[in-house]
């Protein structure tokens, strides 16, 4: 978990969540049956979504399973408050969300038929990864199914290369919003300086588009302004 001087980074920088059909108990139960399991009936199942953010996965899931009981937890307060506001507006009574650290899940936390951790394992420290696997072991009902997504090599090398380049450029401290801006700016500069149309250029462009929310807008002033910002930040660091 990353905390700046001002708080938790996921509170400061909104994470664009989504509904992920591959995590829905209906999909998980179907796959379970295909593998010869007898997964719990989904109609009145209990679901835990770990790192649920602002609820964009668990809330639509709760709407689609009105008799099920769903729980979402996330370390960040702000997205949890957003999720609560949406649930209140929608009058949903079968889902609860809590701002809490996975590390604090105690033995009496309850049992779940489906445990979901989407976009979580590869983004948390080793101690929390271990806790996630322990929660799966201790809180999953006997025929339950856990969905734990993670980034794998070799494909993850592509993303890692852009990440390493951004981390190399950034200071290790500072406001998350400023760091994000600097990181994007640096990738933008790299993109402009790669000649031709090779694979590396495509990788950097893809990553920059992704972290820019799908829109790669040319910056007013273009490369020159980026270069000046980069030069200033190098001077500041010296
Ligand atoms: C990369 S986001 C993924 C959000 C969402 N599951 C998705 O896939 O769109 C990771 C989420 O995990 C939460 N998180 C990180 N460490 C946590 C912890 N120790 N306990 C609970 N939530 C945590 C973050 O606050 C963030 O909302």
Instruction: Give a count of the beta strands, DSSP E runs of length 2 or more.
Output: 7
Major sheet, described briefly?
5 strands, parallel
Mean pLDDT: 88
**Contiguous helical run count:** 9
Could you explain how this protein is built, in words?
Strand 3, helix 3 (58-64) and strand 4 form a beta-alpha-beta unit. The chain has a five-stranded parallel β-sheet with strand order 5-4-3-6-7, with helices on both faces. Helix 6 (156-169) crosses helix 7, helix 7 runs antiparallel to helix 8 and helix 7 (176-193) packs across helix 9. The chain has two domains: 3-148, Rossmann fold (3-Layer(aba) Sandwich), CATH 3.40.50.150; 156-237, no CATH class. It has nine helices and seven strands; from the N terminus they run E-E-H-H-E-H-E-H-E-E-H-E-H-H-H-H. The protein is an alpha/beta fold and 238 residues long. The radius of gyration is 21 Å and the shape is elongated. The protein binds S-adenosylmethionine (SAM). S-adenosylmethionine (SAM) is lined by residues 1, 10, 15, 17-18, 51, 53, 73-76, 101-103, 118-120, 123-124, 128. The site of S-adenosylmethionine has 20 residues, from strand 4.
Summarize the structure.
By secondary structure, the chain is an alpha/beta fold.
């Amino acid at each position: 978990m990353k905390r700046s001087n001002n708080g938790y980074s996921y509170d400061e920088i909104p994470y664009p969540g989504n509904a992920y059909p591959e995590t829905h108990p209906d999909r998980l139960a179907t796959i379970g049956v295909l593998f010869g399991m007898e997964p719990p009936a989904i109609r009145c199942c209990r679901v835990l979504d770990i790192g649920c953010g602002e609820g964009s996965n668990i809330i639509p899931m709760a709407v689609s399973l009105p008799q099920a009981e769903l729980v979402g937890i996330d370390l960040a307060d702000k997205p949890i408050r957003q999720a609560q506001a949406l649930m209140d507006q929608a009058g949903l009574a079968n889902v609860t969300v809590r701002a809490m650290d996975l590390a604090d899940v105690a033995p009496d936390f309850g049992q779940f038929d489906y445990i979901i951790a989407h976009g979580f394992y590869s983004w948390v420290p080793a101690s929390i990864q271990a806790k996630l696997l322990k929660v799966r072991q201790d809180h999953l009902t006997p025929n339950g199914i856990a969905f734990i997504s993670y980034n794998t090599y070799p494909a993850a090398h592509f993303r890692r290369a852009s990440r390493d380049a951004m981390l190399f450029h950034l200071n290790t401290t500072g406001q998350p919003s400023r760091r994000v801006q600097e990181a994007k700016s640096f990738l933008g500069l790299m993109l402009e300086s790669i000649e031709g149309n090779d694979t590396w250029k495509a990788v950097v462009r893809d990553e920059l588009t992704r972290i820019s929310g799908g829109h790669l807008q040319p910056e007013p002033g273009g490369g020159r302004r980026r270069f000046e910002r980069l030069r200033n930040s190098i001077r500041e660091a010296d």
